[in-house]
Design a protein that fits this description.
This protein is an alpha+beta fold. The protein is about 45% helix and about 20% strand. Strand 7, helix 7 and strand 8 form a beta-alpha-beta unit. The longest helix has about 60 residues.
């Protein structure tokens, strides 16, 4: 039986039994529910030290916790229990126990094998916890980045809206034409902020990728990026479907397009942005092209305008990033990613 405890509460978070030739849960084995959530301190393992402990259940001098556990085990034909604490980073993280139907002691070689199994189990637990922690950190980092991006774009947009409306209010006494200019500009900035919010919100979630696929997600992203009277975004693809692409590739490509569109809208003032996705075996080619004023300084310094994030994503995909830009002639961002099949 393998029992793993949470580091914070010292309560069981996972239990597995190998019984009757198969792995099962305590519920499958009809293990009493009262014993499934026994805290670590009530089990008495810490008093046994960090080495293997042999418990002879029919010996009245053998201490057995919790109350009733000895009777339960003996009732199921168990006479000897070999218990090995699992140590993780110097802390007790779980218990590995072996049950025997006969009274017996163990040779040194047998205990060594049991300790080796416990070490393997402990390492597996640590690796699983590290993997979960790394995944949580990556998700948190990505959400923090997008949250900051949403905050910055919306704060900038709505500050502009407030400024133009305030100026319009001031101008009511003197100039009707000036009032209309400020109001029109406020509407324009508000539309831009709404487009930014929709674009970032779409990329915050991964369900759209898992449920609809990359092509549909890109269509939605491009559609939400349109700003009436200011920006026209289009999308085209020669892929029939993208089901064979790993979710990680689909998610990163969606984020790259989101980053590229956002950068163009904020810094290049384009009137049109074209997004295309095509298969060029053995690679997938993604291009985001705009007709804005160009991003010469960003490309020359290889920094700023979100290009660092794009390069990092492309590197994760073992792909290449090619940026072509010219003053007054727009920017083309081409991402080439190797794909199987």
């Amino acid at each position: 039986m393998l029992r793993v405890y949470s580091a914070e509460e010292k309560r069981p978070i996972s239990e597995l039994l190998f019984q009757d030739g198969r792995v099962m849960s305590p519920a499958d084995a009809s293990y009493p529910e009262v014993y499934r959530s026994v805290p670590l301190e009530e089990l008495g393992v810490e008093s046994w030290g960090k080495s293997a402990t042999v418990l002879h259940l029919e010996d009245p001098l053998t201490e057995m916790k919790p109350e009733g556990m000895r009777r339960y085990l003996i009732g199921h034909g168990v006479r000897t229990l070999l218990v090995i604490p699992l140590i993780s980073r110097g802390e007790l993280s779980g218990v590995l126990s072996f049950r025997f139907a006969e009274e017996r002691d163990f040779q040194a070689e047998e205990l060594e094998v049991a300790r080796a199994l416990a070490t393997q189990a402990s390492l597996a637990i640590q690796l699983t916890q590290l993997a979960k922690s790394a995944k949580r950190s990556a998700v948190l980092e990505e959400r923090n980045r997008l949250a900051g991006e949403i905050h910055d774009s919306l704060a900038q947009s709505f500050t502009g809206v407030c400024l133009h409306l305030s100026m319009a209010a001031e101008a009511t006494k003197n100039n009707r034409k000036k009032i209309l200019n400020h109001i029109e500009r406020a509407i324009d900035v508000a539309r831009f902020g709404l487009s930014e919010a929709r674009r970032s919100a779409l990329c915050l979630g991964s369900r759209i990728i898992e449920e609809s696929g990359l092509i549909q997600a890109l269509k939605m992203l491009v559609e939400r990026s349109n700003i009436p009277g200011r920006l026209c975004c289009t999308f085209r693809s020669d892929l029939e479907n993208d089901e064979s692409l790993p979710v990680a590739i689909r998610q990163d490509l969606l984020r790259i397009v989101q980053e590229a569109i956002s950068n163009a809208v904020r810094h290049a003032e384009p009137r049109a942005i074209d997004v295309s996705l095509r298969l060029d075996p053995p690679s997938l080619v993604l291009e985001v092209k705009d007709n804005g004023c160009g991003m010469i300084s960003a490309v020359e310094t290889r920094d700023g305008f979100g290009l660092v994030n794009m390069r990092a994503r492309v590197n994760e995909l073992n792909g290449s990033l090619n940026i072509r830009t010219a003053l007054g002639r727009g920017t083309s961002i081409v991402v080439t990613v190797p794909v199987e099949g």
